[in-house]
């Protein structure tokens, strides 16, 4: 059985692109039947939201500690290789929820 996972979605301001990414992640979670909570934040607030995060999705460049599972998901914004990106997101979400 998969566990509940905590997801952080971050962009430069925590508003525009993180909202788009959040909606895309919610859709994937629903399709894959994965139970999760999502926190949206700016990169300035990211460090304070990492403690309980199981995985972080970024729409901007940001250096995270090696101990954090994360993925850059700018393709969801740009539309370039979007389907491939969704497949990678699915795989990562299953890895985290099944661990």
TrEMBL record:
<dbReference type="Pfam" id="PF02302">
    <property type="entry name" value="PTS_IIB"/>
</dbReference>
<dbReference type="GO" id="GO:0008982">
    <property type="term" value="F:protein-N(PI)-phosphohistidine-sugar phosphotransferase activity"/>
</dbReference>
<feature type="domain" description="PTS EIIB type-2">
    <location>
        <begin position="5"/>
        <end position="99"/>
    </location>
</feature>
<keyword id="KW-0808">Transferase</keyword>
<protein>
    <submittedName>
        <fullName>PTS system, Lactose/Cellobiose specific IIB subunit</fullName>
    </submittedName>
</protein>
<dbReference type="GO" id="GO:0009401">
    <property type="term" value="P:phosphoenolpyruvate-dependent sugar phosphotransferase system"/>
</dbReference>
<dbReference type="InterPro" id="IPR036095">
    <property type="entry name" value="PTS_EIIB-like_sf"/>
</dbReference>
<dbReference type="InterPro" id="IPR013011">
    <property type="entry name" value="PTS_EIIB_2"/>
</dbReference>
<dbReference type="InterPro" id="IPR003501">
    <property type="entry name" value="PTS_EIIB_2/3"/>
</dbReference>
């Amino acid at each position: 059985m998969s566990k509940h996972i905590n997801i952080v979605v971050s962009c430069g301001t925590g508003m525009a692109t993180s909202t788009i990414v959040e909606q895309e992640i919610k859709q994937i979670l629903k399709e894959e039947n994965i139970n999760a909570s999502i926190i949206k934040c700016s990169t300035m607030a990211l460090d304070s939201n990492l403690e309980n995060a199981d995985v972080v999705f970024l729409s901007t460049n940001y250096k995270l500690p090696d101990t954090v599972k994360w993925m850059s998901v700018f393709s969801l914004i740009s539309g370039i290789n979007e389907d491939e990106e969704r497949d990678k997101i699915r795989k990562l979400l299953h890895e985290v929820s099944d661990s």
